[in-house]
Amino acid sequence: xxxxxxxxxxxxxxxxxxxxxxxxxxxxxxxxxxxxxxxxxxxxxxxxxxxxxxxxxxxxxxxxxxxxxxxxxxxxxxxxxxxxxxxxxxxxxxxxxxxxxxxxxxxxxxxxxxxxxxxxxxxxxxxxxxxxxxxxxxxxxxxxxxxxxxxxxxxxxxxxxxxxxxxxxxxxxxxxxxxxxxxxxxxxxxxxxxxxxxxxxxxxxxxxxxxxxxxxxxxxxxxxxxxxxxxxxxxxxxxxxxxxxxxxxxxxxxxxxxxxxxxxxxxxxxxxxxxxxxxxxxxxxxxxxxxxxxxxxxxxxxxxxxxxxxxxxxxxxxxxxxxxxx
Amino acid sequence: xxxxxxxxxxxxxxxxxxxxxxxxxxxxxxxxxxxxxxxxxxxxxxxxxxxxxxxxxxxxxxxxxxxxxxxxxxxxxxxxxxxxxxxxxxxxxxxxxxxxxxxxxxxxxxxxxxxxxxxxxxxxxxxxxxxxxxxxxxxxxxxxxxxxxxxxxxxxxxxxxxxxxxxxxxxxxxxxxxxxxxxxxxxxxxxxxxxxxxxxxxxxxxxxxxxxxxxxxxxxxxxxxxxxxxxxxxxxxxxxxxxxxxxxxxxxxxxxxxxxxxxxxxxxxxxxxxxxxxxxxxxxxxxxxxxxxxxxxxxxxxxxxxxxxxxxxxxxxxxxxxxxxx
Lengths: 326, 326
Fold this sequence. Notes:
By secondary structure, chain A is α/β, with parallel strands linked by helices. In chain A, about 40% of the residues lie in helices and about 20% in strands. Chain A has a domain at about 1-175 and about 220-245: NAD(P)-binding Rossmann-like Domain (Rossmann fold), CATH 3.40.50. In chain A, helix 4 (about 90-110) runs parallel beside helix 5 (about 150-165), helix 6 runs parallel beside helix 8 and helix 8 (about 255-270) crosses helix 11 (about 310-320).
């Protein structure tokens, strides 16, 4: 089985490559080749038992995209995106990458002919939804994004559904919760503080909290995120019917609950490293974000996330601090 | 006030131009100039009290679109589209016109600068919704189109909402019911038979009915369609808030109810001209179409349609056969 990861240098892409290298299989199928593509050179996973190619390519350039698809990957993970903060700051770049780049990829697959019908897994986002929200958002919530990023993800979802319906590929879009705790340096997502208020204190550093404690949001760990992707790559897509876009399960938690989970994991001293610095712009953006989902369809299809925020903190400690503390 | 109609050679475009020529105003504002644009030359309305320019231009060619916007119309009616049957038959053409053409138009307005912020009225469609449907579809129904045409309209709606939110223009998308009874020759919309089973018998001609009598659908007359467009061009858009896409009111009727309305208007002989010729392809498409909407938001905002199908037949007789029978 040949696998292509577009957006392989990002946090999830890197972790997905590592996971595939470790497992050697996707579901029951042995991985024979893995292509890692991003605008920058992707990191090669350690000790893979199969061929790995890394390609630095721009998703917005048609020849580059055609070349990736000419390799006929059986599974395409499309994780590449300009993130929320940047898509809001740079309107043109957001549309160019998130809409046009996605469409170039889908078109390359369509134009490769009817005999070629890979599974395409697209990392969408809960940003496709906008206020007003019910307390718990059902699977039939209408698409009313309140950011350019959310709009671009919603457009890509619509394209994926239509390309799938037309038989050009076998698409599955998974709407990821805010992935938390993100390891490493912050990216330009406006949601970065949800991770940094846990990550920085656990690393003995100060973190800035730009919103109030009662802000509620929807989370899953990077480990759960990878499980979602793997499951989306292996499930029987017939069970999805025509509804190819799925809201992933997650943990609904307030910033206050995050902080209490940090306190249980690392004590008052860690919590003391959180510095409150309200930011009007971020508060306004976050006010338009959802607090919790039902995610019934995804759960019924076997997608699993953490049960509470303590578990999310534990995953970070195990997966990211494990080596450092040993 | 300068007005631009894109898609002016289509049925609604032509009727809108005639209405503006007759009224001389849009709301309280005097019309000073009307540009009629389509891929073919548009018909000039009779006796307008203002300048009319007709332009044959391709919405998918950027210089042509830029030129239209360089005239700084205060109101842009974007009615141009590849219709449902054709968008399903010609995948590339549907996306090129309905998605890329729409985006070129929106981009031309955005790039004209922040001082220019026209009202943009986009004719969307109930095809943005797909099954399963509740009996009466509410304003919060999720976007799950089951055709390429519906997908393209949904994408355009998302773009319109984002461009409006970003302050590039003042957009209103109106989801038109199936416009019935369409005058003149059938177009390539798969929904054409809903009109032809009324129109052809009223003109003493045979009509083919490809679906069963219990098929229920959502209708408004061309006259109501023009009223929607005029109202969308004049209403206080502040009342729309961030939800810029509105399902228009209409009449929910079965094919059987259509036929009974025809019988009341023109007798058994007219009904006898309907020839039943089931068509599997059309039946499959129509099975995915909605039967009726709540349209509460639009009604509250002052949009009005007919009360029943008899009225829809009457509008056809008055507006299209009035001259012929006099």
